[in-house]
Amino acid sequence: MNFHTRKWVKPEDLNPNGTLFGGSLLRWIDEEAAIYAICQLDNQRVVTKFMSEINFVSSARQGDIIELGMTATHFGRTSLTLRCEVRNKITRKSILTVEKMVFVNLDENGEPAPHGRTQIRYAEEAFARYREGSRPVAVPQGVAAAEEEMAGARAEVDSLH
Prior knowledge:
single chain, alpha+beta, Thiol Ester Dehydrase, Chain A, six-stranded antiparallel beta sheet, 3 helices, 6 strands, globular
């Protein structure tokens, strides 16, 4: 499971019980899952088709830092199925799980379209495609700066050995 996004639970995110409002958390999950699907499928035209049972395991409180984790569990012809876990960043205690979220890849007319993917793609692969001159839609504009920063960090680590 890759945990990419962190959120700081603030007063405006709370319900009357003083814990994280489930609706806010679900909005964050849907957005993070859509971004994950976009990056995996190299297409900004994806939609949420299905979300399975949502299991609220524990609560988050004001000041907690939570992280959202996603992993692809199945690549269909036009769809991508994800699993999600939200946990407390510090304690690693699970807050919520969603076993199945299905996203559908769309063409420019909004119709389901085959995506041709069969396995998870990692950030390193996106950077490699960028360096080769093939810039997929999902790679952010700031990727060159990030790539330079990564190269500098690697050089710094290498110099320590």
